């Protein structure tokens, strides 16, 4: 009886292939798949277990692909878009002294410095990313946020106007303590700008229903995510750090437009419709501006955004232009709640 390993070896010999040129074939195949998947906005992953059965160790293959493949954290920010990086940049403001924690290769940093005239100090774990971001920073230092020692890197440094952590806390073992430490680094009238993925998105729910909670290289189920937050958990996260949310932005993405679209499409239409009844269903990311509890002003509730459809029927959007520009986010929220009781959505 021929076992699986012998069968693979026989097939390789039959077609005149050896392990060295199989490695080249794998690299070519993955490159073709990568191009094809990007063209169709999908993700396909090679099954490494299949290659292990024929005795191929993929450590060298992974190393080479990591060098060749574009860093998912390295991107150009389109300031006309409605994305988390854009909202982070908007909430930071201009001419601020910024501490950017987990800056990556500097995709947001560049815009803060070049267009926002900010002065940035950056903390990042990856040494290659530090080399890329250094030219834009006053200081760039290597830091492990899972260590208790990282705040000491900033001993003797003046407090910052803004502390930024864009999609960082979900990668940490103890985001609650880390957020408290971040808050201790802001000065008078300072604030934090934090973005987080929303684990209550309809696409994630579809994975749970399908019993297929598959991690990916990026997105809502990034394989490096350790912690997951629903909107209530985000509210609690800041409350436990003695912070109050004063402004919030949402990245809205339908499940069929996410990297988990295949899981969503497997659900029956009735199940999809039931999931979509949740007002949180399309919230992909949440971007928060927060200050210490003792700062003046009211906290803002992290409530999901109102559907866009009713707004489309407003012929003259006075609320969002002439009136809205003079109101704080807290006042807008109170007015919306009051009008909602009357059946009016703005």
TrEMBL record:
PANTHER family: TRANS-ACONITATE 2-METHYLTRANSFERASE-RELATED. InterPro entries: rRNA_Ade_Mease_Trfase_CS, SAM-dependent_MTases_sf. Transmembrane segments: none annotated. One of its GO terms (molecular function) is rRNA (adenine-N6,N6-)-dimethyltransferase activity. The keyword Ribonucleoprotein does not apply. Keywords: Methyltransferase, S-adenosyl-L-methionine, Transferase. This is Methyltransferase domain-containing protein. CDD domains: AdoMet_MTases.
């Amino acid at each position: 009886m021929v076992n699986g390993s012998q069968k693979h070896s026989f097939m390789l010999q039959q077609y005149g292939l050896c392990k060295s040129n199989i490695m080249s074939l794998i690299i070519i195949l993955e490159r073709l798949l990568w191009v094809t998947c990007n063209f169709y906005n999908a993700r396909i992953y090679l099954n490494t277990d299949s290659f292990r059965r024929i005795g191929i160790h993929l450590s060298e293959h992974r190393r080479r692909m990591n060098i060749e493949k574009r860093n998912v954290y390295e991107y150009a920010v389109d300031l006309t878009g409605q994305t988390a990086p854009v909202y982070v940049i908007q909430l930071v403001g201009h001419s601020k002294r910024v501490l950017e924690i987990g800056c990556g290769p500097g995709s947001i940093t560049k815009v803060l410095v070049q267009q926002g005239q900010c002065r940035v100090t950056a903390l990042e774990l990856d040494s290659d990313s530090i080399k890329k971001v250094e030219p834009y920073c006053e200081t760039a230092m290597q830091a492990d946020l899972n260590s208790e020692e990282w705040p000491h890197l900033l001993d003797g440094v003046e407090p910052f106007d803004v502390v930024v952590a864009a999609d960082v806390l979900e990668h940490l073992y103890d985001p609650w303590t880390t957020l408290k430490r971040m808050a201790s680094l802001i000065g008078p009238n300072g604030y934090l700008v934090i973005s987080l993925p929303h684990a209550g998105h309809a696409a994630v729910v579809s994975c749970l229903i399908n019993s297929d909670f598959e991690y990916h290289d990026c997105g809502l189920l990034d394989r490096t995510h350790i912690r997951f937050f629903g909107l209530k958990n985000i509210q609690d996260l800041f409350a436990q750090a003695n912070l109050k949310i004063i402004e919030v932005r949402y990245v809205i993405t339908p499940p069929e437009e996410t990297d988990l679209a295949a899981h969503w499409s497997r659900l029956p239409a009735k199940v999809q419709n039931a999931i979509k009844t949740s007002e949180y269903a399309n919230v992909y990311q949440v971007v928060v501006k927060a200050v210490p509890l003792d700062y003046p002003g009211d906290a803002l509730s992290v409530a999901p955004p109102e559907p866009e459809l009713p707004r489309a029927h407003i012929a003259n959007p006075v609320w969002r232009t002439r009136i809205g520009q003079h109101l704080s986010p807290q006042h807008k929220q109170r007015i919306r709640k009051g009008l909602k009781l009357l059946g009016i959505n703005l």
